[in-house]
Amino acid sequence: MKKYIFQWFAVIPFLAFSLASCDKYLDIQPKGKRLLKTVNDFDLWLNSEDLAYSIPNAIYLLADNVDNPTIPYPITEGTNWVYTWRQQFSAYSETSPIIWKDLYKAIYYYNTVLNNIDEATGDTGQKESLKAEAQLGRAFHYLYLVNLYGKSYDPNTADEDLAVPFVTSNDLNEPTPDRSTVQEIYDYIVADLTAAIPNLPGNNDNNRFRGSVAAAYSVLARTYLYMGDYTKAAQNAQLALDNGQNAVLDYSELSSSRSIGEMMTRPGVIYGNISTSYYILAYPTLDFLRTFNTKDLRLAFYYYGLGDYSFQTRGEACFISMSVSFYRSYPNWGTSVEEMRLILAEAAARANDLPTAIQQLDLVRKCRFKAADYVKYDPATPVQEEVLQKVLTERTFEFAFNGMRWFDMRRLDAEGRMPEVKRYDGQGNVIATLPAHSNKYTLQIPLQVLYFHPDWPQNPWDEE
Question: With contact defined as beta carbons under 8 Å apart, do 369 and 296 qualify?
Answer without folding.
Answer: yes
